[in-house]
Amino acid sequence: MVAKYARPDSILITGGSSGLGAALAQIYAAPGVRLALTGRDADRLASVAKVCTARGAEVHLAAIDVLERARLVDWIDSRAKAAPLDLLIANAGISAGTGGDGEDAAQTRGILAANVDGVVNTVMAALPAMRARQHGQIAIMSSLAAFRGFPGAPAYCASKAAVRVWGEALRGQLASDGIAVTVICPGYIKTPMTAVNRFPMPLLMESYRAARIIQRGLARDKARIAFPWPMYALVRLIAALPPGLVDPLLRKLPEKD
Question: In the annotation, is 28 catalytic?
């Protein structure tokens, strides 16, 4: 059986300058593939583009923060006109927790803005062209942290829960428009974002292995790509247990910086 979305030819990835976004770009890079990559660091974007170009892909870059809505909309629209998008991966996001001075108002707003508003800005910019074509696939980067609020990273958990639920709802809403939506919920991935963590990260996975899992799941149009499965099972169990039982245990977990 041939996977439904096995060969996207035009792909746009936000947060493509490092970590999982860079790994996804390099996994998809191949002759005949057009990659549009954006991120905040122009130098790191150029480094990723060099690898992707060497693998035969045609690469287009833009150093844009996903919170720069007007610039982002213009760029995504221009890329969709140049090469109608088969796959959009809304990957850009940030992380922080309550370590050090705790999670103040500025940090909370910053995380929610980047991880929620940034994803909304990205997806909504691509939808008009996909709807017009009655074709396209959208992947929204959430996290296993989306299934339960952890005291060490309240805003991060909340932001990932928001985009998870939004993506699940969009899948049903956009199906009649010919647009597929997948929510991605990884566990701990070895990236610059997790490199600052000073606590054990169970089943920490290399970014390229994670990217392969995501690529296979997207090719099959899975509604949710959640991995690794032991961590997924654990967070679903924690989410199902009564808060009165779980909260005292979660308060003992180390804080995230």
Answer: no
